[in-house]
Amino acid sequence: MNKEHLQYGSDQSGLICGYLFTGEDAGKAVRTTEVLHYLNQSQKLEPSHFLWLHFNLANASTERWLRENSQSPEEFYETLHQGSRSTRIEHADQHLIAVINDVLHDFSFDPSEMATLWLHVSHGIMISARRKPLKSVDHLRNAVNTGEIFHSTMELLTHLLRDQADVLTGIVRDATTKIDEVEDHLLAERLSRKRANLGELRRLLVRLQRLLAPEPAALFRLLQKPPAWMADNDVHELRQSTEEFSVVLSDMASLQERIRLLQEEVAAHVGEQNNRSLFVLTIVTVLALPINITTGLMGMNVGGIPWAQNDNGFWIIVVLVSLITAICAWVAHHFKNKD
């Protein structure tokens, strides 16, 4: 494999990597100067040829270079600056504008480790742009570098969606492992700090589902009225990839429900422990009540205190207090067994 393919930095134009596909062979890496030849039509693309250009928006010159050299529609640049980043694929004239949310390359279950990938897809070119390294697009790039053959830009987009579904599947699998661990600790009554992780994990899954779930209306419109250059097979593959993606999102929703039920079980377990501790504290208070009342009464500096002059007065009081305490203990034990 050519080491040049594995470089992750962008050049002065913001281009991270570029590939030329012929539909018959693996993608060929192209530099910015070669890309300019194709975009300016000084070297015209064959009908079966197409380009994939991947840009880094963190490079300040990227958007300016795209505006000057590519024929991306204005909707693509408007999408780059929109506040809404929900996952969607929209039809703009004969172009597709896609917004795909993905996790970072070194994702570690932190809600801040998610970012957006913007795409412009047409018959002869797919332009992708991101600000941070993302897992799914790196998987697609590795597939191209290892020699996988693509016949159209829609195949690239479909492969990207399936890569994202694979990433989500891995996240769900790891989350399931974490939940299994918490459940094992719950059954062994060794929760410690594990229960606090459930809330964080549930919030992360909710945010992932909210950001990654495609907008049904936009996708429905695209599949019903695709651009003229989209082949029927591409439409079928796109529909199938979205169905696979929906299955992963359904698994994620089921996992959220499992976390919710586990949280309720943990809360019930903690409540039961608190009730037990409160009951023990109440019993101790009740058992100490007779002696506290007796010492309070006997300690008053007033006349008429019984057995004050009796040599056995102390022992009489001890017997009485012990008897009352024993009665209180029997009553508390009786009510405990009754409950």
Automatic annotation (TrEMBL):
Membrane association type: Multi-pass membrane protein
Keywords, alphabetical: Cell inner membrane, Cell membrane, Ion transport, Membrane, Transmembrane, Transmembrane helix, Transport, Zinc
CDD domains hit by this protein: ZntB_u1
Pfam families found in the cross-reference section: CorA
Record field: transmembrane: 278-300, 312-332
Localisation: Cell membrane
Main location, first listed in the record: membrane
Gene3D superfamilies per the UniProt record, alphabetical: CorA soluble domain-like, Magnesium transport protein CorA, transmembrane region
Stored InterPro entries: CorA_cytoplasmic_dom, CorA_TM1_TM2, MgTranspt_CorA/ZnTranspt_ZntB
Family: Belongs to the CorA metal ion transporter (MIT) (TC 1.A.35) family.
Protein name in UniProt: Transporter
Organism field: Undibacterium flavidum
